[in-house]
Design goal:
This protein is mainly β and 88 residues long. Helices cover 0% and strands 58% of the residues. The chain is built from no helices and 6 strands. Strands 1-3-4-6-5 form a 5-stranded mixed β-barrel. Strand 3 and strand 4 form a beta hairpin.
């Protein structure tokens, strides 16, 4: 019997009705950084290689993964956006 070694895939989450708590920032001329809000909850998010993608009207539905962000000696969770659409 043959066994294939496969890594566990990272789960992709989906959240409806997300808005911005601050204007998006462009990082290194190719990535977007956001402070997202849903109700009273806020979370930092990045969208890699998306600086040239037009953002749809708010509010958004977002598909994302959750990642560990280590920077300047600090560790926190961050959302890594996979896709965004206008909320239905």
């Amino acid at each position: 019997m043959l066994f294939r070694s496969t890594a566990n895939r990272q789960p992709v989450f989906f959240t409806r009705g997300v808005s911005l708590a601050a204007d998006p920032r462009v990082m290194k001329e190719k990535h977007l950084s956001f402070l997202l809000r849903q109700g009273s909850a806020k979370c930092r998010a990045v969208w890699w290689s998306a600086a040239d993608i037009p953002l749809p009207p708010l509010p958004w539905d977002i598909a994302y993964t959750v990642a560990r962000n280590e920077w300047n000696g600090s560790v926190e969770l961050q959302i890594e956006i996979r896709d965004v659409r206008t909320s239905a």
